[in-house]
Specification:
The protein has 6 helices and 10 strands, in the order βββαβββαβαβαβαβα. It is an alpha/beta fold. The protein has one domain: Alpha/Beta hydrolase fold, catalytic domain (Rossmann fold, 3-Layer(aba) Sandwich). Strand 9, helix 5 and strand 10 form a beta-alpha-beta unit. The protein is globular and about 45 Å long. The chain starts with a strand and ends in a 5-residue tail after the last helix.
Length: 228
């Protein structure tokens, strides 16, 4: 598997003619390297994978330590001010630009999936749902909604029915599965025509083998790839 290390991301180019792109965002304190090892298991040689690195920033709930984060988390309590919305907007702009860049490389918007784990999943949902063209899908792993009060007003009509995949661990000690299920239920309720899939697994804040198979099957459907 070939890697291209950019300053702000890791790219795995397709081994065959490119038929789509996955932009996959890592969680708090990790990096773009976090999910690279999953790619061979997905068996998608015609797909380009982009794994961006979040910027380094102080994180309030972690005693202000500097780490890779898509946004600062100000409190662990349920609050409208839980996350820095300024940081969320900054990351949203960056993901929008990454999607734009893939379109400039020849991908149609519906050939692009935006995915993410934990904090990265929150930004994947936030940005994907607001993108002004219909995407191929949004994948939300072990995650939750940020700025939920703004969602209904800001969701773009082009993505109000974009298919979504939710996966979560029932034993998640970092992001309770109830937060992920709330995100799923909220989006399913906003548009009953949206294809929203929920899967949970007996695991903590992580990815398991069974989940990788679910992700693979879902991506095959989204990209219109037939299983050999």
């Amino acid at each position: 598997m070939t890697y291209i290390n950019h300053d702000d991301s890791i790219e795995i180019p397709p081994e065959e003619e490119c038929e789509g792109t996955v932009i996959w965002l890592h969680g708090l304190g990790a990096s773009g390297n976090d999910f690279v090892s999953i790619v061979p298991h997905l068996q998608l040689p015609q797909i380009r994978f982009i794994f961006p690195h979040a910027p380094q920033r102080p994180v309030t709930i972690n005693q202000g330590w500097v780490m890779r984060a898509w946004y600062d988390i100000l409190t662990l309590g349920e609050s409208p001010c839980r996350e820095s919305l300024e940081d969320v907007q900054e990351s949203h702009q960056r993901i929008t630009e990454l999607i734009d860049a893939q379109i400039h490389r020849g991908m149609a918007p519906n050939q692009i999936i935006v995915a993410g784990f934990s904090q990265g999943g929150a930004i994947a949902m936030h940005s994907g749902l607001r993108y002004p063209a219909t995407l191929g899908g949004i994948m939300a792993l072990s995650t939750y909604l940020v700025a939920p009060d703004q969602l209904e007003a800001e969701i773009h009509p082009q993505n109000e029915a974009t298919p979504m995949l939710f996966c979560h661990g029932t034993q998640d000690s970092m992001v309770p599965a109830s937060r992920g299920k709330h995100a799923h239920d909220t989006l399913a309720t906003l548009n009953e025509e949206r294809e929203v899939e929920w899967n949970d697994f007996p695991m903590d804040h992580e990815i398991c083998t069974e989940e990788i198979q679910v992700i693979k099957d879902w991506m095959y459907r989204r990209f219109g790839i037939q299983e050999d």
